[in-house]
Amino acid sequence: MNDHSLTGELLLLKTRRPDTRNELRREALRLFAERGYAAVSMRDIAEAVGVRQGAIYNHFAGKQDLLAALMIEHMETLILALDEALSGESGPIARLQAFVRFHVGYHIDKPDDVFIAYMELRNLEPEGRERVHALRNRYEAVLRDVLAEGLRNGAFRGPDAAVQARALIAMMTGVTVWYREGGRLGRRDVIESYVQITLQSVGIDYPIGGED
């Protein structure tokens, strides 16, 4: 067997590995975050994974399908993780704190996913964009409902739950722009700073009830 045949067989075996789809997702995410969606080709992704370009089409219909999968799976994962983070929390104040801690922590830990989800939305075709918007609305609705409950029972102050929810999500998501590991404030300090800012924005003194 010559070297060319051996290389071909190795590539075929790699293509058939069950984790090839995940490798394609991971490398596409990295490349899109580094270069931007428009500057990355399917060949670039295939070379990064170590498979033939045609092998990608065993898992994704094309680059647009791959981008949509990254963004949709990001939002689905985000929603499931949020549900888990809020489970067991009751009352609008506790649920608001839990939401902030989850959102800021998740976005600190997954900056590439967040960057793609926001910056590359413009590159999605209408069908994919609508699915992402629907998932975003589901996520935002959780915070909106928490704020609405707090406004109804007098725990929070503010003009409108929908406006507050959008403003708070924009503020919290902005952590990905400036946070860097090893900076003046650690991860926990940054998260608690966002908790304080959020609670004060709805009229809650912080720390609550003399908490440290």
Automatic annotation (TrEMBL):
Residue ranges the UniProt entry marks as DNA-binding: 41-60
Signal peptide segment: none
UniProt keywords, alphabetically: DNA-binding, Transcription, Transcription regulation
Keyword DNA-binding: yes
Domain HTH tetR-type: from-to ranges: 18-78
Coiled-coil region: none
UniProt keyword ATP-binding present: no
Any one GO MF annotation of this record: DNA-binding transcription factor activity
PANTHER family hit by this protein: HTH-TYPE TRANSCRIPTIONAL REGULATOR ACRR, HTH-TYPE TRANSCRIPTIONAL REGULATOR RUTR
Protein name (Swiss-Prot/TrEMBL): TetR/AcrR family transcriptional regulator
